[in-house]
Amino acid sequence: MSWKSISKSQYSQLLGTLETQNKDNKDYYRMFVDRSHLNSGKFAHGGFLMSFLDNVMGNAAYKSFNNTACVTISMSIHFTQSASLGDELIGHPIIEKKTKTLSFVKCQVFSKDNLIVSGSGIWKIVNFKKDNTVSDKIKLDDGGW
């Protein structure tokens, strides 16, 4: 199966082309390190790698909630090796646990056979409802905005 671009949000477009493919019933995501992703040392900036992981794991969480919007509430990152201009980064997210409102995801990102970065995080489903006033919020007291 070929790679399919899923860079639809303005932020994703700012980062660059994020692609996905499903192989053997597993989702994979990829990006290529571009000049705009480099730090002053000419390596992929840690912020870019974190954003890539956030997008990959966030997409996995979104799919785990049957394509319902969710937001990152916690994320832990481990940098293992640097990535350079032109490197193909491939991430494979795994849903470790899912509750009614939370998805726990982990992911490793490789370039060739080298582990570049790994991480884990928690995503929370978002209920899009009408904006509540503070008094509505106090009356409803649902524990969060």
Any overview of this molecule?
The protein is α+β, with helices and mostly antiparallel strands. The protein has a single domain, classed as Hotdog Thioesterase (Thiol Ester Dehydrase, Chain A). Helices cover 22% and strands 39% of the residues. The chain is built from three helices and seven strands, in the order βαββαββββα. The protein has a seven-stranded antiparallel β-sheet with strand order 1-2-3-5-6-7-4, with helices on one face. Strand 2 and strand 3 (26-32) form a beta hairpin. The longest helix has 19 residues, at 46-64. The radius of gyration is 17 Å and the shape is globular. The mean pLDDT is 90.
Name the features.
7 strands, alpha+beta, seven-stranded antiparallel sheet, 145 residues, Thiol Ester Dehydrase, Chain A
Quick overview:
With 145 residues, the chain is of the alpha+beta class. It has helices spanning 10-15, 46-64, 134-140, and strands spanning 4-5, 19-23, 26-32, 70-79, 88-98, 102-111, 114-125. It has a seven-stranded antiparallel β-sheet with strand order 1-2-3-5-6-7-4, covered by helices on one side.
Distance between the termini: 41 Å
| CATH architectural name | Roll
Helix and strand run: EHEEHEEEEH
* Spatial strand sequence of the major β-sheet: 1-2-3-5-6-7-4
Q: CATH-wise, what's the superfamily?
A: Hotdog Thioesterase
CATH class: Alpha Beta
Shape: globular
CATH names the topology as Thiol Ester Dehydrase, Chain A
Q: How much strand? A: 35-45%
Q: Report the radius of gyration as a whole number of Å.
A: 17 Å
| Number of separate domains | 1
Number of helices: 3
> What do the pLDDT scores average to?
90
